[in-house]
């Protein structure tokens, strides 16, 4: 949502019937006369909330923050789509709710497991793209999803961090199947102990120890034999985690990645006549290159970046590149495309709503910051059809 979370803002946007159900399920605010509280009057609800014990207040606020984070058009679309994958048709129910916050609130109350799964997916979409790595030469087989196997993955990831970084004493792994194809494994190793400064429930100022978890995410596609990994660290760490995943979940031994399995090959984008064909059914109005970063053959440290405005002629980037390379007496064969930003514009509701623009970066050999939102999944499909992602 456009505004930051505040308790009063949440109460103003939330329907009273949902608030009553939420607090009622937790045995809170039972003395409030909900039938006589106007939708626009939040003071009685807020005052009653603030009279709860400190721990209860914090519990409510944590839930409200989760709901607020998914209160967006993208959040609503993802809830509906993931609902379809679980044989839940949420469209008619959510149409009855006014605003994205109430839609997310209703799913939180009625389908908590679905809400939690979509929240985890949404959080993964906002992680730093530079730490994602995609590998294409994985075995193509159905993963072992037994409880013992998933626990083994958590124990192994935790042990790896414990032995190499002195953290990871505990590690929980949660699995989620998305779109009946993509297997998400969310690992949460225990991080270093930290000290925060704040107040206890009695209002006393204190320094308190806190041990958070950090994120390690595996996204496995058995159909294509790909594994996307999110982990902060160097190439060696990522290769080790790939091997751990393969041993635990696929029961396979894999070697270091084959250099010829590089997922992304971008040099075709140098060609001014490169085409971006699309299917009208996908609602793609326009595809254009916003940025190209070139590296000199034989000296990868020497790079040139070309960037054009979001609006203009489709071949602006190639006109700029051709003119500049000519001035430097560099033929196209002397440069490799190492990174590109592509912009796609999508028609929505037959043109009745302003088109949606999606811009994403691909960096050779194995980084792409596309997520798994609806339009992003369309873009991923075309990367293969255009030959930018090797099949």
Give structural attributes.
391 residues, 3 domains, five-stranded antiparallel sheet, 12 helices, 12 strands
Give your account of this protein's structure.
The chain is of the alpha+beta class. The chain folds into three domains: 7-125, no CATH class; 130-261, no CATH class; 267-385, no CATH class. 37% of the residues lie in helices and 24% in strands. The protein is built from twelve helices and twelve strands. The strands form three sheets. A five-stranded antiparallel β-sheet has the order 1-7-6-3-2, sandwiched between helices. The chain has a five-stranded antiparallel β-sheet with strand order 9-8-10-11-12, with helices on one face. Helix 9 (147-165) packs antiparallel against helix 10. The longest helix has 19 residues, at 147-165. It is globular, with a radius of gyration of 25 Å.
């Amino acid at each position: 949502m456009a505004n930051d979370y505040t308790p009063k803002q949440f109460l103003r946007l939330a329907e009273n019937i949902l608030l009553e159900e939420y607090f009622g399920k937790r045995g809170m605010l039972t003395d409030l006369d909900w039938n006589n509280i106007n939708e626009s009057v939040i003071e009685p609800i807020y005052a009653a909330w603030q009279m709860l014990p400190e721990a209860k207040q914090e519990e409510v606020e944590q839930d409200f923050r989760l709901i607020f984070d998914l209160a967006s058009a993208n959040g609503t679309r993802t809830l509906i789509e993931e609902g379809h994958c679980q044989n839940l048709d949420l469209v008619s129910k959510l149409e009855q709710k006014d605003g994205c916050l109430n839609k997310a609130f209703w799913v939180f109350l009625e389908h908590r497991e679905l809400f939690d799964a979509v929240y985890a997916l949404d959080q993964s979409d906002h992680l730093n793209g530079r730490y994602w790595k995609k590998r294409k030469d994985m075995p193509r087989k159905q993963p072992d999803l037994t409880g013992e196997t998933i626990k083994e993955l958590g124990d192994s990831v935790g042990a790896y961090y414990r032995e190499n970084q002195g953290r990871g004493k505990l590690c929980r792994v949660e699995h989620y199947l998305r779109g009946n194809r993509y297997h998400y494994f969310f690992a949460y190793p225990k991080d270093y102990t930290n000290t925060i400064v704040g107040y206890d429930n009695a209002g006393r100022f204190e320094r308190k120890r806190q041990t958070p978890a950090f994120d390690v995410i595996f996204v496995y596609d058995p159909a294509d034999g790909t594994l996307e990994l999110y982990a902060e660290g160097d190439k060696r760490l990522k290769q080790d985690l790939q091997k751990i995943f393969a041993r635990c979940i696929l029961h396979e031994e894999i070697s270091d990645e084959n250099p010829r399995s590089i997922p992304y090959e971008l040099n075709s984008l140098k060609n001014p006549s490169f085409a971006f064909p699309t299917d009208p059914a996908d609602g793609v109005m326009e595809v254009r290159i916003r940025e190209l970063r070139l590296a000199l053959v034989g000296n990868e440290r020497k790079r040139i970046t070309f960037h054009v405005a979001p609006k203009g002629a489709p071949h602006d980037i190639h006109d700029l590149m051709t003119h500049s390379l000519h001035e430097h007496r560099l033929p196209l064969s002397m440069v490799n495309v190492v990174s590109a930003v592509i912009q796609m514009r999508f028609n929505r509701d037959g043109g009745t709503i302003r088109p949606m623009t999606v811009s994403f970066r691909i960096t050779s050999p194995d980084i792409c910051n596309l997520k798994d939102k609806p339009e992003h999944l369309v873009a991923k499909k075309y990367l293969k059809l255009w030959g930018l992602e090797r099949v």
